[in-house]
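Researcher: Please translate sequence to structure tokens.
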Amino acid sequence: MRSSIKFYPVIVLSFLFLINVSGQDKKDFPRPKNRGVYVIAHRGAHEGIPENSLPAFQKAIDLGCDFVEIDTRRTKDGVIVSVHNSTVDKYVKGYKGKVKDFTLAELKKMDIGSKVGKKWKGTRIPTVEEIFKLCSGKIGVYIDLKEAVVPEVTELLKKYDMASHAVWYIPASHMKEIMQVKELCPESYVMPDPGNEKNIARVTAKAHPLVLATDMGELSKNYVRMAHENGAMVFVDEKEGTPEEWDRIIDWGTDGIQTDRPYELIEYLNKKQK
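Model: Translation complete:
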């Protein structure tokens, strides 16, 4: 069982939900399902499954993750799809080129499953609308804004009643998009990445986020402390994805972990806190 001291940041953040100056209603923010730590499935639960695919997102739902991370890109004909890389080269056989240079119909002809395994042959690139339809009422979405598609994504979030279950990863240097999200979709949560901890106070004062995003290159005990003092939780991208790294992350009071190993992380959390 984890000590009460280690639970302290979570208790503090529960209080900060009520006093954060952003004006959002924090009671609507999803609560963590896994022992007080948010589990974010990076590109879905894609161990042995095509990444950013509907099966990977369904697996994350089945595991009990809190969020699935999706990467948003626009097709040639203006449809928003989820592909991490700017090109399709890594994912399919027989095609090369940028996502934005293909129509949706052309992308839907591509098989992103065969490279992963015979079981997944015929798996297709999903639209963001297909993802939101699958996730609605089941899991939150962590939107990695690869392109400036805020209005289109906002419309889909509202269509599927997902706005209050969405966090938007946007570098703090893209303040225009951060403010656009706050204006068009105030029910959802901007999640700027301030970079170095010295930027935390400035970014939180301007954007009033409930969550900050960071990675293991920037995360430290002091980073988490500063974020909490400024009314923000911290979601971090793991680097090693090992129990030893998770120990360090949690001991520093970090609120959520984006992982490529969600099954193992959930199992680790359950064992650690018994």
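Researcher: Any highlights?
Model: The chain has ten helices and nine strands.
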